[in-house]
Specification:
2% of the residues lie in helices and 46% in strands. The protein is built from one helix and 16 strands.
């Protein structure tokens, strides 16, 4: 998988560089589909700007697409295969600084964790169609709806991480893929 788009970086990352505000990055031809028994994590710094801000999205808005987006800070999960769900959490309520966000899909529920603590979630009983599409971090795959804050070290896992693994501010090794602010053109696939 190769990174595409025109990302810009800031030296103010959680560790080294990070994606600058409004600088989305894309990973092409990704077979990963978020679903039951899987986890996505990312470091986030800053508040959502007004309107829509996308943290992570996959593919065009057809079957197989999913996204986690913010509407004036309120977090939502959307997939055409399932619908649009409030995650009952507002990113803008977090204190300033870096926070490790995690999205764990287990037993028909997507739970949102911030710094290892459960802060929100939604029910998701159906599956998303498996597809191979572009994934976008910090905006839609077409470049719209850019996140107003900074992202660093996005990881995709093929298993549901435990609350213990999400605590302590460290990201658990063994990710399917990782995109970090220090990347210069490729993802780290860590099967």
């Amino acid at each position: 998988e190769k990174i595409s788009g025109a990302p810009s970086f800031t030296d103010k990352g959680q560790s080294g560089q990070a994606l600058a505000p409004g600088a989305g990055v894309q990973l092409r031809e990704v077979p990963y589909t978020f679903g039951e028994g899987k986890t996505m994590t990312m470091w986030v710094n800053g508040k959502a700007s007004s309107g829509y801000n996308v943290l992570i999205a996959k593919g065009p808005k057809t079957a197989g697409h999913f996204e986690i987006y913010l509407n004036n800070g309120s977090m939502f999960f959307y997939a055409p295969d399932l619908g649009d769900y409030s995650m009952n959490f507002n990113l803008n309520t977090l204190e300033n600084g870096w926070h490790l966000l995690a999205f764990v899909w287990k037993n028909g529920t997507i739970t949102v964790y911030a710094d290892g603590k459960s802060v929100g979630g939604c029910t998701a009983k159906k599956a998303i169609k498996e597809t191979v599409e572009t994934m976008s971090f910090g905006g839609q795959t077409d470049g719209s709806m850019a996140f107003g804050g900074t992202l660093d070290t996005v990881r995709l896992y093929d298993r549901a991480l435990t609350p213990e693994e999400l605590g302590g501010g460290n990201q658990t090794p063994g990710a399917y893929a990782e995109v970090a602010g220090n990347d210069t053109g490729k993802s780290t696939k860590t099967d």
